């Protein structure tokens, strides 16, 4: 599983204030074979300009807000075309542990998908 290609899809709409934390946090991950794909749903708050500063982040620009499912579907299609073995979906306000991909792969090794879970207080 260490060589499995994992695509992390971050969906965004006018979430610059969240992306400032989310993108650097995700890029700190220790798993070696992952790519970050930001799908932007027509933001007008400079989210795209910020995301494009990170050479490790591939950006897809939608001209309009396709909603959650529409935006995610665009990202999933791109990830599958690029050969993703696993796909993780994150909202733009997500924060993850450095080894979250490794941990998720161990748990979901036979499922073919990853889940993002949040602890509720």
Automatic annotation (TrEMBL):
| PANTHER family (alphabetical) | GALACTOFURANOSYLTRANSFERASE GLFT2, RHAMNOSYLTRANSFERASE WBBL
Q: Under what name is this protein listed? A: Glycosyltransferase
Q: What are the protein's UniProt keywords?
A: Glycosyltransferase, Transferase
Q: What class of enzyme is it?
A: transferase
State the family it belongs to: Belongs to the glycosyltransferase 2 family.
Supply the EC number(s): 2.4.-.-
Q: Name one GO molecular function term.
A: glycosyltransferase activity
């Amino acid at each position: 599983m260490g060589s499995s290609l994992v695509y992390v899809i971050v969906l965004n709409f006018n979430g610059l204030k969240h992306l400032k934390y989310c993108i650097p946090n995700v890029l700190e991950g220790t798993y070696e074979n992952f790519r970050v794909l930001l799908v932007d749903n027509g933001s007008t708050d400079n989210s795209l300009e910020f995301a494009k500063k990170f050479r490790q982040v591939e950006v897809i620009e939608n001209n309009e807000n396709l909603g959650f499912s529409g935006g995610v579907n665009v990202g999933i299609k791109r990830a599958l075309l690029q050969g993703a073995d696993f796909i993780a979906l994150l909202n733009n306000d997500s924060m993850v542990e450095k080894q979250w991909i490794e941990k998720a792969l161990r748990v979901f090794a036979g499922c073919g998908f990853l889940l993002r879970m949040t602890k509720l207080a």
